[in-house]
Amino acid sequence: MSVSPISTYSAVQSTLNDVSKVVANLQQEQEQVSSGNASQDFSGMSSQVQQYLSLDAVLSKTDQYLNNNKIIETRINSTSSALSGIVSSATDLQNLISQRRTGVANSAAFGIQLQGIFQQLAGQLNTSIDNHFLFSGSKVNTPAIDASVFPTIQVSGVPDKGYYLGNSKDLIASPQDNVSVAYNVPGDSLGFQNIIAGLATAKDGDATNSDIKLKNAYDLVQKGIQQVINAQATVNGNKVLFSTSDTYLQNSKLYYQGIQQSIGNTDLVSVSTQVATNQGILQAAFSVYAKISALRLSDYLK
């Protein structure tokens, strides 16, 4: 029986084409198994590319929220700590005024002690994080108060904000989508005004030896302390809000990462099975090619 050289050539070419296709498929499948990715680029994702990219954008936005929240939470924590210090300093001021009124405190040292408490309050109101002054409203590059000038008020016993160097604007942050919160406490808030007015009135009462003014100073400080405590409660509520948002964002991030990985990752069981199948096909194709290639010239003449 004779063998057609043309048919043999066609068989060889067909076999080589089959081998090339199987080798290409096998190489891609082995890359999927080794990398864990269904595709080395977007071409292998077909219609899921847009969904993958959309999830990528969502994850990027989530990370941005988490990074921003970390900055804001540092400021909120520092604000809360400063407010605790202000309450403590104002309580010391209240006790000092009470002692002055009852004659327990040394009147000669009273003015010096007032100056010391003012320095404490000024330092607390001028708290800053990375050159961002916490109590200056939106004028974050400006201290809230001039620590070198003891405060005065225009009308004795009447609070005003003549001491204040910042502004009254709120700083707004968004811990997550559709949530906005004013997280700062401006230094001209009523609690601070009352404490500073109490400080100035106490100095005036001491200078004029007026118990009425000293009592007024005591009452102003007492009122201011409660207002600062209320402000701190709001700040601490914001701490909880941001913490809750962080938990939500972290959980959302894990969820969206899972979806994205299900799109981009390889089904190892399925692909491994296909690898084994293609290896069998490749082995068979090589066997056929070897048999065809082994034909000699004399085989064509039979």
What does this structure look like?
This protein is mainly alpha-helical and about 300 residues long. The chain has two domains: about 5-35 and about 270-300; about 50-260, f41 fragment of flagellin, N-terminal domain (Up-down Bundle). It has seven helices and four strands; from the N terminus they run αααββββαααα. The protein has helices at about 5-35, 50-100, 105-125, 190-210, 210-265, 270-295, 295-300; strands at about 130, 130-135, 170-175, 180. A two-stranded antiparallel sheet has the order 1-2. Strands 3-4 form a two-stranded antiparallel sheet. A hairpin with a 2-residue loop joins strand 1 and strand 2. Helix 2 (about 50-100) runs antiparallel to helix 3 (about 105-125), helix 2 packs parallel to helix 4 and helix 4 packs antiparallel against helix 5 (about 210-265). The relative contact order is 0.16. The model is unreliable at about 295-300 (pLDDT under 50).
**How far apart lie the N and C ends?**
5 Å
- For the record, the CATH class of the largest domain is Mainly Alpha
Strand order across the biggest sheet? 1-2
Structural class: mainly alpha
Order of helices and strands: HHHEEEEHHHH
Rg calculated over all Cα atoms: 39 Å
Number of helices: 7
* Sheet with most strands: 2 strands, antiparallel
Q: What is the CATH H-level superfamily of the largest domain?
A: f41 fragment of flagellin, N-terminal domain
Q: How many domains comprise the coordinates?
A: 2
Which architecture of the largest domain per CATH? Answer: Up-down Bundle
